[in-house]
Design a protein that fits this description.
The protein is of the alpha+beta class and 325 residues long. It has nine helices and 15 strands. The chain is globular. The protein starts with a helix and ends in a 6-residue tail after the last strand. The structure holds adenosine-5'-diphosphate and magnesium ion. The site of adenosine-5'-diphosphate (ADP) has 21 residues, from helix 5 and helix 8.
């Protein structure tokens, strides 16, 4: 008896350490830290842990392609080319083109060249102080997606100070690619969570839908304010409550207005998008936050198969047409 308990504890420890469960009726799960956040992949209809390994490898592959900070990545090479043309992977071109379409759609409220301004705010370290205003003005001069020029598989930035950051869309794209990979490997019931960027495959094996919680902004216990029931959809939230600096009791969050270099101050706490494409959901969550409630809602209501929940700073939930009953 004792022997079995020790083996049991050992097995449990191995499973916790490797982040997997392989019992027949249970999902298998892998959790790790990537893209500066906690990611988790859960498969409900297979015990093949090598598929989970494959997912993590794919994530690392895309990190090495799209990260602004990984030396030698496509985005790193473009940003450090001093204005020279750089040949990149076709997937980088495709994602850049999609990202640029949201820059245009939002008339520049969404802009993938804001990174140097974000760096000045130092949201990572939360220093509690404003960026130096001279530096901020200088950085703002290099912001402008119009400087990005794509020609075949080559990208050139006209202004050598301009930097690309795909942080507002890359996790969505990667989630979509993981879904394709999982489907190719015969997985029909799974949940991909890239730091709150959720993509579901099928429903649960018992036929029920996944119940995705939308967090109540600033709630320290992480209590849901509502839930979304979904199959084969992505649910992505851009909120102001996760990355911010607090100065004189006011929150200065990470979604910045490219025209001022300051956070959008538009009485929104978060925007959640529901779409079958996670790329779309990720890009639109940031885009709609940047556009604000009225224009953001109008945009969502003009799109097929795309819904949204806006949460205002008095915790009012505003639903797009397809979700309002
Ligand atoms: P998170 O990645 O934290 O889940 P988002 O999807 O909203 O949240 O994206 C945040 C990313 O968007 C950060 O990389 C940030 O630098 C970038 N960003 C901030 N403001 C804008 C903006 N106006 N347009 C495009 N990207 C932005
Ligand atoms: Mg986003």
């Amino acid at each position: 008896m004792k022997k079995y308990s020790i083996i049991g504890i050992l097995l449990l420890t191995v499973c916790i350490l490797s982040g997997c469960k392989t019992t027949d009726n249970n999902p298998i799960t892998r959790q790790t830290i990537l893209f500066d956040t906690i990611i988790q992949i859960r498969i409900y209809d297979s015990n093949a842990t090598n598929i989970l390994d494959g997912c993590i490898e794919k994530c690392q592959y895309y990190e090495n392609l799209f990260s602004r900070t990984v030396e030698g990545s496509d985005i790193y090479r473009i940003n450090h080319a001093d204005g020279a043309p750089v040949e990149v992977h076709p997937e980088t071109i495709a994602l850049l083109e999609t990202a640029l379409s949201y820059c245009e759609l939002s008339d520049g409220a969404f802009d993938i060249t804001l990174a140097p301004v974000s760096d000045l705010w130092d949201f990572q370290n939360n220093t509690g102080s404003f960026p130096n205003s001279d530096q901020l003005q200088k950085c703002l001069e290099s912001v402008g997606y119009q400087a990005i020029c794509i020609n075949g598989n080559t990208v050139q930035i006209a202004n050598p100070d301009t930097q690309i950051d795909l942080g507002a869309i890359a996790k969505g794209y990667i989630a979509d690619q993981l879904k394709l990979y999982l489907k190719e490997n015969g997985v029909n019931h799974a949940l991909i969570d890239l730091g709150g960027n959720i993509l579901t495959i099928g429903g649960k094996p018992d036929g029920s839908k996944y119940n995705i919680a939308i967090q109540k902004p600033f709630d320290e216990q992480g209590t849901p304010i509502t839930t979304v029931k979904t199959t084969d959809d992505s649910v992505v939230t851009s909120g102001i409550y996760q990355r911010y600096v607090e100065i004189d009791r006011k929150v200065y969050h990470h979604i910045l207005n490219p025209r001022t270099g300051y956070p959008y101050d538009n009485s929104l706490y978060s925007v959640t998008i529901i779409s079958d494409s996670s790329t779309t959901a990720d890009a639109l969550s940031t885009t709609c936050f940047a556009m604000g409630l009225e224009d953001g809602l109008e945009l969502i209501n003009s799109l097929d198969h795309t819904e949204a929940i806006f949460i205002t700073d008095n915790y009012e939930l505003i639903y797009s047409d397809g979700l309002s009953k």
